[in-house]
Here is the input.
Amino acid sequence: MTTTVKLPLDLEQSLRQHCAAQGRSISDVMRDALVAYLASTPASAASAFALGADLFGRHAGPVDLATARRQHLADAWGDKHARRDTH
Here is the structure.
């Protein structure tokens, strides 16, 4: 695969000088630099699903809580006060 990389002039000059002194091509040096960089960089962050996978299914509740939250809140409030009144 061929990739084009735009470098600041001073970096390009340093790269060319380094390659000439080492007797290596620019492609070889850049490949080695990318391999080293990628090896030292941590893997990408886990997805939201992966981060919460151990929590999914642990809590039970109404299946329509998102759409009927006001009704569920009113029911919970009524249940709480009904238990208070019986004690």
